[in-house]
Write a structure and sequence with these properties.
The chain has helices at 2-18, 21-38, 72-78, 104-118, 134-169, 171-176, 182-209, 211-242, 246-269, 281-293, 301-329, and strands spanning 50-53, 67-68, 85-88, 95-97. The chain is mainly alpha-helical. The chain folds into two domains: 16-41 and 132-329; 50-118, no CATH class. The chain has a four-stranded mixed beta sheet with strand order 2-1-3-4, sandwiched between helices. Helix 5 runs parallel beside helix 8 (211-242), helix 5 packs antiparallel against helix 9 (246-269) and helix 7 (182-209) runs antiparallel to helix 8 (211-242). Keywords: Membrane, Transmembrane, Transmembrane helix. It comes from Blautia parvula. The chain crosses the membrane at residues 21-43, 146-164, 184-209, 221-243, 250-277, 302-322.
């Protein structure tokens, strides 16, 4: 039995080499890291510009960071981008003027920042919400996004592509005549792709967060990356067994990449509020991975119990479907 397992692992490893899987993973790692270090962290967008229209000159205590406007029209035009904030001090009580960004939390932050410039000497209670610098926060967020995309979309495609290659080579038909359990066939592929994904996750984290920061979150990241990798690999395996052609699978891959993961990114990164997103399973996987990168605890025991049940159910479903497919081939 050990020889059978070793032979399966050796065969699947050769398939991964033949399909250039490791080369593509290395290329993705280099591309993501170059973008993060050479482009993304240098996109230093300034804080919300604040324009002050004060024709009577009564706001003498306003911060110098507020840009003085000569007319109300000039202030309105400057604030039409949905990012800048205006303060109309032409009346008795100053009023905030801004075009909504569509996100209530962002609009509240913009208004609060404008008020702080209008009354810079007022006492406020400062609460420390984190120790990350702006650059480190950006690094953690973008690294989490790239890893999530790599494990969900690319991970879904990777294992399935090797199975389609085996179908074309007639390997499934050969397996149907051998005294090899479907469990070992699935486990062989799953172990190799899981190991590859974990190595990719570790390298991506250490390269872009730094060794000290990366090692501090790496254990939690590896756990969440392992869960996501297994779930997506099994899902891709199941779809590849059920579908006859790679065209059908490519369409399903496109739906996953665009219509399944995109809402997760929008809800998790932009603050868009959708009540239905809590029922999206990928959203919870993404938030758990993001919490791991920021040193926060995931959902708890219920989350891990649901993940374990999902992995076990998918594994049993894949084994049963593969057995049925091998019976057809045999």
């Amino acid at each position: 039995m050990r020889y059978v397992v070793f032979s399966l692992l050796k065969k699947d490893f050769r398939l991964m080499l033949a399909s250039k899987f490791f080369l593509l993973a290395l290329g993705s790692l280099i591309l993501y890291s170059c973008y993060i270090n050479l482009v993304y962290v240098r996109l230093d967008q300034e804080i919300y510009p604040v324009y002050l229209y004060d024709p009577m000159g009564v706001q003498s205590t306003a911060s110098s960071a507020a840009i003085r406007s000569e007319s109300a029209e000039q202030m309105h035009q400057a604030c039409s981008d949905g990012y800048s904030v205006g303060i109309d001090a032409s009346g008795r009580v100053p009023r905030i003027y801004m075009v909504s960004s569509g996100i209530r939390r962002t609009d509240n932050s913009r208004a609060a920042y404008a008020v702080s410039l209008l009354f810079p000497d007022s006492e406020t209670k400062t609460v420390v919400i984190g120790t990350n610098t702006k650059e480190m926060k950006n690094r953690r967020e973008i690294t989490c996004e790239f890893l999530f995309f790599e494990l969900s979309a690319v991970g879904f495609l990777g294992l399935a592509s090797t199975l389609f290659k085996e179908k074309q080579m007639g390997v499934i038909r050969v397996h149907s005549t051998l005294p090899v359990s479907q469990t070992y066939i699935v486990l062989s592929k799953l172990v190799l792709f899981l190991a590859a994904d974990l190595i990719f996750a570790a390298l991506l984290t250490l390269v872009n967060l730094g060794v000290s920061q990366g090692l501090s979150v790496l254990p939690a990241v590896m756990i969440q990356a392992g869960i996501l990798s297994v779930v997506m690999a099994l899902t891709g395996f199941f779809c590849a067994v059920c579908l006859q052609g790679f065209r059908q699978f490519s369409l399903l891959y496109l739906i996953l990449a665009v219509f399944v993961t995109t809402p997760v990114f929008l809800a998790g990164q932009t603050g868009i509020s959708w009540k239905w997103i809590r029922y999206h399973p990928m959203y919870h996987l993404f938030m758990a991975l993001k919490n791991a990168y920021f040193g926060m605890k995931p959902a708890g025991n219920i989350y891990y119990a649901v993940c374990a049940a999902a992995v076990l159910s998918l594994f049993m479903l894949v084994c049963r479907t593969l057995k049925h497919e091998m019976a057809k081939e045999g």
